[in-house]
Design a protein that fits this description.
By secondary structure, the protein is of the alpha/beta class. 38% of the residues lie in helices and 16% in strands. It contains twelve helices and twelve strands. α9 packs parallel to α11. The structure holds ligand PBG and zinc ion (ZN).
Amino acid sequence: MGIAPIGPFHYAGDMNFSAFGQFPAYRPRRLRQSALWRNLVRETSLTAGRLVLPLFARSGRKMRRPVPSMPGVFQLSPDEVVREAEAAFSAGIPAVLLFGIPGTKDDKATGAYARNGIVQQTVRLLKKELPALLVFTDVCLCEYMSHGHCGIVEKTGGRVANDRTLPLLARTALSHAAAGADLVAPSDMMDGRVAAIRQALDQNGFADTPILSYAAKFASAYYGPFRDAAESAPQFGDRRAYQMDAANVLEALRETAMDIREGADMVMVKPALAYLDVLHRVKAEFGYPTAAYSVSGEFSMIKAAAAKGWIDERAVTLESLLAMRRAGADFIITYAATAAARWLKEG
Ligand code: PBG
Ligand code: ZN
């Protein structure tokens, strides 16, 4: 699977017209006559094993707080995270991606790397209750910062300081690995963070913990609902000085090359649907395991239109996920993972 080869034969070229007149010799409809034919020649597959479910952990017990802008998504206490993860796992989902909402925030993101922070606690519980499930963690500081930015904010000027943020990210990733995380996924977009995290992991006995870098993460309005879910909206300004400009694809390739050079095991393009061209080029250029993050806004748009009866939620969700696979994603991070897994099972 992966990127389809492109060459003259794939376009049928001069075979298009028969010797007998203007009718095409090649009639694509011949292979679309029934589901059996279509299944036989389908180029791309979508299976539950290629989906990852993001979950939001918050301290408490038996607590499920709905996220208003994301129907069916909740802030969950750790015990409820286990329940949700179990449902996903039994539907065929191999991994969850954990985010944390801490009790208190400060200007050093202390909660991000606390030994008993919300993510660390939840990882331990998940690995105890569901040892076979892969537990991925999002590594960022915005949820833990009083100002909501992804790094240390300088006292004057309000810039996010790149290099001073790196040790905190490395510490956060290390604390996740120490709690038992199977993979860490930095989403902050500081330059050099993959190298800093790789070094911290290697020097502390976690040489086998992989890094999935949010390599090409764009400053996107599609993150709106997530910031409700994670309570991570910046209190001033925006993220455009560290996340990527939506107009740039060559820069996305440089970002990806850089993360790979620094030791990323897998790379990600985010958002997904509005950036399928970027996804395609990242996969084609590097051939690395590549993830697409179908973000909150993509999910919420489908939910909202479906709630109005304007689109078919199931069909539009599966078509969108398939498009991400076709564009080059090996796997997809999506809030619809469990539902999609169940739909796929029904066939
Ligand atoms: C935190 C982070 C964000 C998302 C994933 N990690 C928000 C942001 O960068 O503002 C977005 C996910 C989504 O919208 O589903 N750095
Ligand atoms: Zn962040």
